[in-house]
Every structure is written in C-alpha cells, then in structure tokens.
C-alpha cells in the first residue's frame, strides 16, 4: 500500500528553462520550443477527457510537462494507458510520499567530484552537461537534481575538464544531464575540444533521449561533430517501448551509426509501460532493427514521485528470465539496479 501524502514542492529543482531560439537557429530548436507543455492540451490532442485522467497540477508545477509534438504523434489517440503517454503525463500518484523513495536515489551528491562532475565507478566520469531535456520523463531519477548549482558548462567547462584531467585513472567521459544533446552543437564542440587535450581519455559515451524523442536533433552539424571526435563513441539512446520508434527515428539512428558510433539502448522497467514479456521482446527486436543493441534494463531508481512505476524485483527477474527464454542472447539486456557505493551496476 502506498500512503497518500502531498509531494513537497521544490521549485528550486525545476530543470533549466528552454533557451530562446535565435533567428536562423537549427530546425530542431524551433521544434523544441513548440513542445507541448500543458497536460490538458496534450490530452485534448489525444482526444482524452482531462477530468478522468488524474492530472496533478502540483506534480506538473514541481516537474513540468514537456513533450515534443513528434513524440505525441506516436501516442495512440483515445488511450489513457498509452505507454508513451504514461511516461510524460503528470498524475496524482506522483504526489504520494512512499517510504524508501528519496530526492537523491542513486547517491549523485556523494559521488560529486567537481561542479557538474560525478564519479561513481573506476575509470569513468560523468559530466552533467546541462539540466535541459526535450522531454520530461515522469520516472526520471534526476527530477530533483540541483541543476542550477551542478552544471559542468557553467565556467566554460574549465573546472569540470580540470577535474578529469587531474585523474589519470579516468579514461572514459560520459556526457549526461539532463540531455547533453539539448546543448547547441558549437557548445558541445567547445567541450570536446577541451577534452581532446586530456591525454588519458580513450572513449566518449553519450547518453541522450533526443534521437528518439526529437530525431530532428540529428542534423548535419551534429553528425559532423560526432564524425570528427578523436575517440570511439558509445551512444546510448533511452527508449522504453517499441512504439517510440518510427521512420524518422530509424533515419536518425542510421545517420548516427554512419558516424561510426556504437549504438546501445538502456531502458527502465516501468509499470504500465513495458512490464510484460511481449513489450520487452518488442522493444529489443525494434531496437535491433534500428541498429541499436539492447544494453541495460534498469530497475527503477527510487526517487520521490515515481513509486507508481515500480515493478517488484521478483516480477522483474521473472520477466527477464522469460525474455531470455524467448530471444537470442544478444537481444536480452542485462537486468540491473544502481546501488549507491557499488563498484558498478548491480545485476539483479
Ligand atoms: S531525458 Fe533523461 S534526464 Fe531528461 S527527463 Fe528524461 S530520463 Fe530524465
């Protein structure tokens, strides 16, 4: 049972606003600005009755709705239980306080190495490149993250890059956020130009949901930047359901593959979104058809406001075993959980 109690408002943790779009800005930035931000508009677009949807204005105030219109177009009209809609609609269940769900579910604060730099595992450092995202996922484990203070870009990346350069054990940098591709390409190029002077770096990893939720972000400038990077690149997309893919996403992913990047998918196991063998198998098969290898299936990080998405561990293990019995091994992602203080993701 989940005891009902109001979710505390934390306006200081709301992610950074979308920047203004300059004249002549890339198309993806205009599409970003045109994202749906009003839950009632979203429901109206899908022909759904807002009064029956359990919308929470308090949850929307704490973590606003944001969803690109192209992603909305992949939702099924008339279905309140649509797996894509469930990922973005602020609902009453987010207001419940549940024991064991906190503000920093995975120990980001304890793993801080410098402003905007998090190191949890040997050899890898994560850069919080920005607090902005094109979509706001209700299950996000960083929905309470203090982006205003913890963004690596703040001083022209200098402190963050210096912290990485000073540690000879770090040979892989992970661009995360927020969504790093929400930064304009010249800003990304500014960062990687500085990182290129760090001799111990061997790999770059990019975690981004943008190729799926706003595939127009994969434009000529981005591809040129990626192609010119001096390291092998692992590009981790975050898709949770097969319906998130369409022809525009396939084209974006094919273009990313064309830069030589290795594409991987990391999904979160979510109640009401992908908590069935059929949904997980379809996700793996659809990812692979788009040239993306299933990598991780994450148990939910226990952050306040997301408890209604949780699938118990026993059920998660049973789903994973059934998936392994159905699919070829390379289509079966590792089922893992992040535990503060561990030396890597913990297999379930
Ligand atoms: S794109 Fe990633 S960081 Fe942004 S809201 Fe979704 S899960 Fe969180």
From TrEMBL:
Cofactors demanded by this protein: [4Fe-4S] cluster; pyridoxal 5'-phosphate
Protein keywords: 4Fe-4S, Iron, Iron-sulfur, Isomerase, Metal-binding, Pyridoxal phosphate, S-adenosyl-L-methionine
GO MF: 4 iron, 4 sulfur cluster binding; isomerase activity; metal ion binding
Protein family (similarity comment): Belongs to the radical SAM superfamily. KamA family.
Organism: Pseudoxanthomonas suwonensis
Residues where [4Fe-4S] cluster binds: 133, 137, 140
Catalyzed reactions per annotation: L-lysine = D-beta-lysine
Organism placement in taxonomy: Bacteria, Pseudomonadati, Pseudomonadota, Gammaproteobacteria, Lysobacterales
Protein name per UniProt: L-lysine 2,3-aminomutase
Domain Radical SAM core: 119-334
